[in-house]
Amino acid sequence: MTDAVPGNGPGKGQLIAGRVLSGLVILFLLFDAGLKLVSPETAIKYSPPGLGWPLEVGTMHMLGILLLIPTLLYIWPRTAVLGAILITGYLGGAIATHLRIDSPLFSHTLFGVYLGVMLWAGLWLRSPALRLLVTPRWA
Q1: Distance from CA of residue 88 to its chain's centroid?
Q2: Is residue 5 situated within a structural domain?
Q3: 42: which residues sit within 8 A by CB, 6+ positions away?
Q4: How far apart are CA 116 and CA 121, in angstroms?
Q5: Which helix (H) or strand (E) holds 37?
Q6: How far apart are CA 118 and CA 110, in angstroms?
Q7: pTM, two decimal places
Q8: Measured between alpha carbons, how far is residue 74 from residues 15, 70, 91, 105, 127 in Å?
Q9: Short-list 29, 34, 31, CA closest to 90
Q10: Does residue 26 contact residue 75 with C-beta atoms inside 8 Å?
Q11: Any domain includes 127
Q12: Long-range CB contacts for residues 54-57, cutoff 8 Å, separation at least 24
């Protein structure tokens, strides 16, 4: 396998790895948004207690929409960076909420970090423009 040369696009291995990582994140986010939109009662039932915001159907619908739109933007290559930025903000809110209510650190609080790393790594691997923009240049 050869590494990608800047400007020529990602190598085959990088592209596959990027699509797999992005695909896993997309599947999880679509499932989460879909659950909040289609069956908000289930999302309410399995939400941790003491979140500090109302566990109502309307709230779940709003959270589902706020997650679905950036996820759809992330799927389309032309708007993937915008989608990733918006999803990162959403995940930051989830992390802050779990931190505030003292959820378990590695399984709940940092789950948004794990998802965010996968989100950006997948995009970085499949986008030569992003790699050129954020790869450190030594000297």
Answers
A1: 6
A2: no
A3: 35
A4: 8
A5: helix 12-38
A6: 13
A7: 0.87
A8: 16, 6, 14, 27, 12
A9: 29
A10: yes
A11: yes
A12: none
CB 6 within 8 A of CB 118: no
The count of domains in the chain is 1
Q: What are 49-94's pLDDT values in tens digits?
A: 888 788 999 999 999 999 999 999 999 999 999 999 999 999 999 9
Q: Rounded to an integer, what distance in angstroms lies between the CA atom of residue 82 and that of residue 133?
A: 15
- Give per-residue pLDDT as tens, 6-31: 555 678 999 999 999 999 999 999 99
**Structural domain span for residue 23:** 12-132
| Chain centre distance of CA 38 | 20
Please indicate, yes or no, if residue 137 is contained in any of the structural domains.
Answer: no
With H, G, I as helix, E, B as strand and everything else as coil, classify residue 136: coil
Q: Kindly state whether residue 60 falls inside one of the protein's structural domains.
A: yes
Whether 122 contacts 22, CB under 8 Å: yes
Closest CA to 63 of 100, 38, 27: 38
Report which residue type is found at 30. L
User: Which residue is listed with tokens 């879909």?
Assistant: 34
Picking from 51, 63, 55, 53, the residue whose alpha carbon sits closest to that of residue 102 is 51
For residue 62, give the DSSP letter.
Answer: H
